[in-house]
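Q: Please design a sequence for this.
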């Protein structure tokens, strides 16, 4: 099965991800060895002026493809960005949407809050045919405290991407429980590694894949790791399940969930 990682910081010396070509190659090899077949590269764009990095990013992206061919690592690459939400967010750049498809873009909120007026801004994008993918909502304090906001976003046409490390507990128990609640409500559409390096934040999605197959079934896992990302990379429409309202697990159930291996 194809496994497509739609969120990573792989190119050297662009942001807080890889710092050298050696590290980049190690990260991609780690992904390949653990079953990832395609990687979308999504460096941080924190403000409009960061798009000045566009040419350098494209150049290094092409360079990485050549290096992977020479090293016989058959991983397919896609290019996008992780856009930090700004009220003046502008998608009129080659790296703003995945593979410059003009449709799907990865956007992150500040960790502590859901930005004001973001619903209106997303609505403008959506009626203009753009499709926002919200990066790691399970790590956002506004969503953790009020997960029904995630349901509202999805109802209005936003897609959600959780981090693989959220399911394995890398960001703590509240983040893990929020990721579980979003999966239970079928509000998750993508999984990404958000890989930055080879140790603390590796480019690995396999662990999350196994957890999702075991707890939510192979069909949902295939949608998250293969079908949805394949369509998003190509700028095609996704078929997604009807979103369900989110229920956070009750306190007393947490012991049971733990025994079930969550
Ligand atoms: Fe990221």
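A: Design:
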């Amino acid at each position: 099965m194809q496994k497509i990682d739609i969120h990573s910081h792989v190119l050297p010396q662009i942001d807080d991800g890889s710092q050298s070509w050696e590290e980049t190659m190690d990260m991609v090899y780690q992904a390949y060895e653990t079953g990832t077949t395609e990687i979308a590269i999504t460096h941080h764009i924190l403000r409009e002026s960061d798009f000045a990095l566009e040419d350098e990013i494209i150049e290094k992206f092409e360079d990485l493809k050549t290096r992977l061919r020479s090293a016989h690592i058959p991983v397919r690459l896609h290019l996008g960005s992780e856009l930090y939400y700004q009220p003046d967010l502008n998608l009129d750049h080659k790296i703003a949407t995945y593979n410059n498809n003009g449709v799907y873009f990865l956007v992150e909120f500040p960790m502590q809050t859901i930005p004001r007026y973001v619903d209106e801004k997303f609505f403008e994008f959506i009626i203009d045919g753009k499709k926002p993918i919200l990066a790691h909502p399970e790590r956002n304090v506004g969503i953790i405290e009020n997960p029904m906001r995630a349901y509202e976003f999805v109802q209005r046409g936003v897609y959600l991407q959780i981090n693989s490390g959220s399911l394995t507990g890398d960001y703590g128990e509240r983040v893990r429980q929020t990721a579980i609640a979003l999966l239970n409500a079928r509000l998750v559409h993508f999984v990404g590694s958000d890989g930055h390096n080879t140790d603390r934040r590796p480019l690995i999605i396999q662990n999350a894949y196994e957890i999702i197959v075991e707890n939510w079934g192979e069909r949902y896992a295939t949608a998250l790791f293969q079908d949805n990302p394949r369509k998003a990379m190509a700028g095609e429409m996704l078929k997604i399940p009807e979103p369900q309202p989110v229920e956070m697990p009750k306190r007393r159930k947490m012991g049971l969930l733990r025994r079930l291996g969550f």
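Q: Thanks. Anything notable?
A: DSSP finds ten helices and seven strands in the chain. The pocket of fe (ii) ion is lined by residues 7, 9, 82, 194 (CB under 6 Å).
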